[in-house]
């Protein structure tokens, strides 16, 4: 049975005030329109909902039972409408971001703080995966946006990419490690133990491509999933490693090794679905990064 929701709204207000005239004032309808709506609803339900007299309007037993269902239902709808309105004004809502732990810690953390200060009612959710895995999260609709290293070969044509920051990858060593500051050729660096991130990361893929473009191959001494641990192992002289320069904060025990040929710079980028509309929270967060 299909019944216009407006008929139930009229019923609710008449039942609430037990008055056709008061309901008409609240709904900004004529009293005749209110009466016609109730008659139409009673006809569709094939049952009387109100007892009418010249002095009093009361609910029938059927009307009382219907009111038990209609009142919470209309409150639920009103609550949903209010939630959406609050979401659009960023009084409430949720922002779900996919990013690697490195990008979260060394780049996004300050922006999370700023966003939370500006929009405290919006819940920030973060899913940590590698940059390559984050693309899968976005493709499945499990996150609103991702922040990734670029280039990222997993990004497909149905995704929109917005670069937000340029950074430099660098080779690093501890201050005590037996290698001078350079400049070094890639061939010379490849003769040292190389500590690097696991192969399924954009940074690791980029390093392999860098050596391959120079006709070289490398066999890492250590492969890790955590860049923090990678840097810590570099700090105890296990070898040299290759990291984004923004990860070198507060590490006076480490130094950057100069290369004879400059390493091409990379970018951090925000990636969103091309055809899906962005939430207001997503728009505001991206604006902070831009």
TrEMBL record:
<dbReference type="Pfam" id="PF03466">
    <property type="entry name" value="LysR_substrate"/>
</dbReference>
<comment type="similarity">
    <text>Belongs to the LysR transcriptional regulatory family.</text>
</comment>
<keyword id="KW-0238">DNA-binding</keyword>
<keyword id="KW-0805">Transcription regulation</keyword>
<protein>
    <submittedName>
        <fullName>LysR family transcriptional regulator</fullName>
    </submittedName>
</protein>
<dbReference type="Pfam" id="PF00126">
    <property type="entry name" value="HTH_1"/>
</dbReference>
<keyword id="KW-0804">Transcription</keyword>
<dbReference type="InterPro" id="IPR005119">
    <property type="entry name" value="LysR_subst-bd"/>
</dbReference>
<dbReference type="InterPro" id="IPR036388">
    <property type="entry name" value="WH-like_DNA-bd_sf"/>
</dbReference>
<dbReference type="InterPro" id="IPR036390">
    <property type="entry name" value="WH_DNA-bd_sf"/>
</dbReference>
<dbReference type="GO" id="GO:0003700">
    <property type="term" value="F:DNA-binding transcription factor activity"/>
</dbReference>
<dbReference type="InterPro" id="IPR000847">
    <property type="entry name" value="LysR_HTH_N"/>
</dbReference>
<feature type="domain" description="HTH lysR-type">
    <location>
        <begin position="3"/>
        <end position="60"/>
    </location>
</feature>
<dbReference type="GO" id="GO:0000976">
    <property type="term" value="F:transcription cis-regulatory region binding"/>
</dbReference>
């Amino acid at each position: 049975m299909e019944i216009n929701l407006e008929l139930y709204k009229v019923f609710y207000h008449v039942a609430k005030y037990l008055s056709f005239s008061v309901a008409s004032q609240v709904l900004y309808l004529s009293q005749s329109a209110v009466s016609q709506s109730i008659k139409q609803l009673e006809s569709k339900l094939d049952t009387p909902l109100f007892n009418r007299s010249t002095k009093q309007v009361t609910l029938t037993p059927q009307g009382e039972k219907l009111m038990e269902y209609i009142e919470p239902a209309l409150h639920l709808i009103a609550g949903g409408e209010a939630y959406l309105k609050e979401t659009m004004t960023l009084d409430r809502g949720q922002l779900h971001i996919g990013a690697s732990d490195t990008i979260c810690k060394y780049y996004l953390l300050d922006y999370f703080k700023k966003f939370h200060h500006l929009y405290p009612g919006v819940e920030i959710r973060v899913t940590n995966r590698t940059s390559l895995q984050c693309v899968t999260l976005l493709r499945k609709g499990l996150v609103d946006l991702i922040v990734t290293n670029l280039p990222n070969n997993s990004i497909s044509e149905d995704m929109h990419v917005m670069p937000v920051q340029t950074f430099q990858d660098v080779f690093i060593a501890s201050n005590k490690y037996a290698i001078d500051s350079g400049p070094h050729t890639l061939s010379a660096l490849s003769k040292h133990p190389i500590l690097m991130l696991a192969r399924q990361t954009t940074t690791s893929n980029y390093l392999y491509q860098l050596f391959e473009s120079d006709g070289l191959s490398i066999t890492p001494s250590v492969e890790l999933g955590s860049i923090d641990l990678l840097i810590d192992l570099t700090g105890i002289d296990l070898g040299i490693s290759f990291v984004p320069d923004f990860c070198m904060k507060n590490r006076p025990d480490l130094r950057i090794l100069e290369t004879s040929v400059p390493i091409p710079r990379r970018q951090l980028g925000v990636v969103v679905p091309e055809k899906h509309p962005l939430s207001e929270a997503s728009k505001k967060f991206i604006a902070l990064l831009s």
